[in-house]
UniProtKB/TrEMBL annotation:
Residues 80-343 form the NodB homology domain. SUPFAM superfamilies: Glycoside hydrolase/deacetylase. Keywords: Hydrolase, Signal. The keyword Nucleotide-binding does not apply. It is found in: Secreted. Residues 1-23 form the signal peptide. This is Polysaccharide deacetylase family protein. Coiled coil: none annotated. GO terms for molecular function: hydrolase activity.
Length: 343
C-alpha cells in the first residue's frame, strides 16, 4: 500500500511537471539612478545584477505584448517567463536602463504620460528619444495623460461626467502614442497602481488591459483589468527576495469577492475561491502590510475569507498571500490584493 501511494504521488508530480506553463511574471521599475529617490530607484549595478540573474538562470524574457497575448489565448509559455516594464518614461531609462538592456538583448515596455511629454517636462523623455528606443524594440504604452489618480472624481462631478473625462484621458493618450510612435497596444498602467471597480469596468469597456503595481504572478485566469506586477526598485530591489518572486506562480482562482479596492470598509475583507490542485490550504499564509498576519477563515473546502486583525491606516495597503507549490518544489503561489483606505 505504501508503494502504491508513492507510485501515484510520483505520477502526479510528473504529470504536473509535464504541463505547459501558464504563469508568468511582470517586473516593474521606475528610475535606474543613484541620485533620485531611493524608494523608486535601482542603481545601474543592481539593475545589471537582476538581468544577470535572469540570463544565468535561463529565464525567458519576452515582450509584454507576447506575454499578454499568449495568456489571453490560453497558449503555453516556457517556464520562468518574464516581461520587464518601466513606469513614467524618465530620462534615466534612456541614459541608464536602455544601454544595459541592449547589452542583454532584452525587450521591455515603457508606460508614458503623453500630456507631460507634450508639455516638455524636463524629467521625462521626449518623443524623439522614445521613437529611438521603439526602433530598437522597446514597446511604448499608456500610463494616462498626466499621471492623475484616475479613480478620483472631481468636486461635484457625476459618475457620467467622470466616465467621460477619464475616457477622454485614456483615448487621447493612446492616440498621441499612436501618432508619435506607431504603437497601439491597449495596455493601461494605472498611475500609482490605484484602481476601483468603476475604473476597471471602464477599462474593460474601452477594450484595454489594466495593469497595477500590486505583487503577484499572472496566468490565463488572471483578471485582465487588474494584472499584478512585482516592483523591483528601492526596498524591493534586493536580489535574494526578488529571486523568490521571479520563480513564483499565479494561483488558479475561480472567484474573487470584495466590495472595492478603494474603500471605506475598514478593515476590508476579501473572499477567494481557489482551484485547490497544487497547494495545501494549511500552508496558505496571508499578511497585511503594516499589520502582520491576516485572519483566515475557510468558509468552504476551496474558499477562504481574509481579514485584517485591526483597521488599516488610510492610503495604500495590501493583503499578500502565498503558498508553496506541491509539484514545483521551491516555488510559491503568490496573490496580492491592493487597497486604498479612504474616509
Amino acid at each position: 500500500m505504501t508503494f502504491k501511494k508513492l507510485f501515484h504521488s510520483v505520477l502526479s508530480i510528473l504529470f504536473w511537471l509535464s504541463l505547459p506553463a501558464h504563469s508568468a511574471v511582470i517586473l516593474q521599475y521606475h528610475h535606474v539612478s543613484e541620485t533620485l529617490p531611493a524608494v523608486t530607484s535601482v542603481s545601474a549595478e543592481t539593475f545589471t545584477e537582476h538581468l544577470n540573474y535572469l540570463k544565468d538562470h535561463d529565464f525567458n524574457v519576452i515582450p509584454l505584448n507576447d506575454l499578454l497575448t499568449s495568456l489571453q489565448q490560453g497558449q503555453s509559455l516556457p517556464d520562468k517567463t518574464v516581461a520587464i516594464t518601466f513606469d513614467d518614461g524618465y530620462n534615466n531609462n534612456y541614459e541608464q536602463a536602455a544601454p544595459i538592456l541592449e547589452k542583454f538583448k532584452y525587450p521591455y515596455t515603457i508606460f508614458v504620460n503623453p500630456k507631460l511629454i507634450d508639455e516638455g517636462e524636463a524629467y521625462v523623455m521626449g518623443w524623439d528619444k522614445l521613437r529611438e528606443l521603439a526602433k530598437k524594440g522597446a514597446l511604448i504604452s499608456n500610463h494616462s495623460a498626466q499621471h492623475d489618480y484616475l479613480h478620483h472624481k472631481l468636486a461635484n462631478e457625476t459618475t457620467q461626467q467622470w466616465q467621460a473625462r477619464i475616457k477622454q484621458d485614456i483615448l487621447s493618450s493612446q492616440q498621441r502614442i499612436k501618432e508619435e510612435i506607431g504603437h497601439d497596444y491597449k495596455y493601461l498602467a494605472y498611475p500609482y497602481g490605484e484602481f476601483n471597480n468603476q475604473l476597471q469596468s471602464l477599462v474593460k469597456e474601452l477594450g484595454f488591459i489594466g495593469i497595477g503595481q500590486h505583487s503577484g504572478a499572472v496566468n490565463k485566469e488572471s483578471d485582465f483589468s487588474r494584472l499584478p506586477r512585482f516592483p523591483a526598485s528601492g526596498f524591493y530591489s534586493k536580489l535574494d527576495t526578488l529571486i523568490t518572486k521571479l520563480n513564483s506562480r499565479a494561483f488558479s482562482i475561480q472567484k474573487l469577492s470584495y466590495l472595492d479596492s478603494v474603500t471605506n470598509e475598514n478593515p476590508p475583507q476579501i473572499s477567494i475561491q481557489f482551484n485547490m490542485d497544487d497547494f495545501h490550504k494549511s500552508q496558505l499564509a496571508c499578511y497585511v502590510s503594516g499589520v502582520g498576519q491576516a485572519k483566515l477563515v475557510w468558509s468552504a473546502a476551496d474558499t477562504v475569507v481574509i481579514n485584517s486583525p485591526k483597521p488599516l491606516a488610510q492610503g495604500r495597503s495590501r493583503f499578500n498571500c502565498t503558498a508553496p507549490s506541491i509539484s514545483h518544489k521551491g516555488s510559491y503561489y503568490w496573490f496580492s490584493q491592493p487597497w486604498v483606505i479612504v474616509d
